[in-house]
C-alpha cells in the first residue's frame, strides 16, 4: 500500500514503532499503584513539567517536593486532561473545555468504540500538537480515509489499546487546525450542548432537537423515541 507510506510522512514526529528512549513502564505496577493513573503517568513521563512551571508561582520551587504531595500542581493546569484507560498516555488539552462535542452514530464510530456511538471532543491543535515527546513512543497510529476525502490519523495507546485522538489531514497534505479527542478520554467531559451526527445509523433514540443538520439527512431518518 503505497498510500500508507506517503501518509506516514505526514506526521514524521510520531514514531510508528515501539522504539523508546526510556524503559517502558511496567504495567503490572500501574494497576497496583495507589495514585491515580493521571498522576502516575504524569510523574512517570514528566508530561506536565512545562505546564506545571507555567502555573507555579514565582515563590514556588519548580522542582516537585516529595514532602508536599497535597500541593502537587496536578490541578493547577486548568486545561482539560486527556488520558487513556491505563494512564500511560496522559497529556493536557489546549484549552479547558472542548469547542464542540459530537456524538457520532456512524458505523465507523460504532466499530471504533465497540459500542453504539463515538463521542468526539474538538480541541484546537495549536498548543496541543505535536504531543509531548515523552508520550509519543507509547502512541500507535492507524490511518484511514474519511468520507469527506480527508485522511484520518488515528492515534491509540500501545499499552491499553484505547483510541485517544484523531488528526484530520486535508487532501493537500495539510493538517486541519482541530484535533478530535475521543470523549471518554477527556476527564470531566459533559455532554451538555453535544450534537448528534450520522444519526441514520443510530442504534439508540436520539432527541431531534440535538441533531446537527447535515445535508442529505432528513430528520425523519432519525431514530426518535
Ligand atoms: Zn493506555
Ligand atoms: Zn463517526
TrEMBL record:
Gene3D superfamilies: glutathione-dependent formaldehyde- activating enzyme (gfa). Residues 1-26, 51-77 are annotated as: Disordered. InterPro entries: CENP-V/GFA, Mss4-like_sf. PROSITE patterns: CENP_V_GFA. The keyword Lyase applies. Residues 77-210 form the CENP-V/GFA domain. Residues 57-71 have a biased composition (Low complexity). Keywords: Lyase, Metal-binding, Zinc. Coiled coil: none annotated. GO terms for molecular function: carbon-sulfur lyase activity; metal ion binding. SUPFAM superfamilies: Mss4-like. Belongs to the Gfa family. This is CENP-V/GFA domain-containing protein. It comes from Talaromyces pinophilus (Penicillium pinophilum).
Amino acid at each position: 500500500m503505497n498510500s500508507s507510506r506517503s501518509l506516514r510522512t505526514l506526521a514524521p514526529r510520531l514514531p510508528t514503532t515501539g522504539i523508546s528512549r526510556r524503559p517502558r513502564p511496567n504495567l503490572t505496577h500501574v494497576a497496583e499503584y495507589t495514585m491515580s493513573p493521571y498522576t502516575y503517568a504524569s510523574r512517570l513521563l514528566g508530561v506536565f513539567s512545562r505546564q506545571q512551571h507555567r502555573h507555579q508561582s514565582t515563590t514556588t520551587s519548580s522542582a516537585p517536593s516529595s514532602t508536599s504531595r497535597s500541593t502537587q500542581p496536578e490541578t493547577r493546569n486548568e486545561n482539560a486532561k486527556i488520558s487513556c484507560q491505563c494512564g500511560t498516555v496522559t497529556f493536557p488539552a489546549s484549552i479547558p473545555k472542548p469547542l464542540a462535542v459530537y456524538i457520532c452514530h456512524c458505523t465507523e464510530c460504532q466499530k471504533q468504540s465497540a459500542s453504539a456511538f463515538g463521542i468526539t471532543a474538538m480541541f484546537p491543535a495549536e498548543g496541543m500538537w505535536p504531543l509531548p515527546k515523552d508520550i509519543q513512543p507509547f502512541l500507535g497510529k492507524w490511518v484511514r480515509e474519511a468520507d469527506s476525502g480527508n485522511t484520518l490519523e488515528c492515534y491509540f495507546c500501545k499499552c491499553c489499546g484505547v483510541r485517544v485522538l484523531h488528526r484530520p489531514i486535508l487532501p493537500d497534505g495539510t493538517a486541519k487546525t482541530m484535533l478530535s479527542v475521543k470523549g471518554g478520554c477527556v476527564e470531566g467531559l459533559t455532554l451538555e450542548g453535544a450534537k448528534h451526527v450520522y444519526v441514520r445509523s443510530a442504534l439508540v433514540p436520539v432527541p431531534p432537537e440535538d441533531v446537527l443538520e447535515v445535508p442529505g439527512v432528513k430528520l425523519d431518518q432519525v431514530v426518535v423515541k
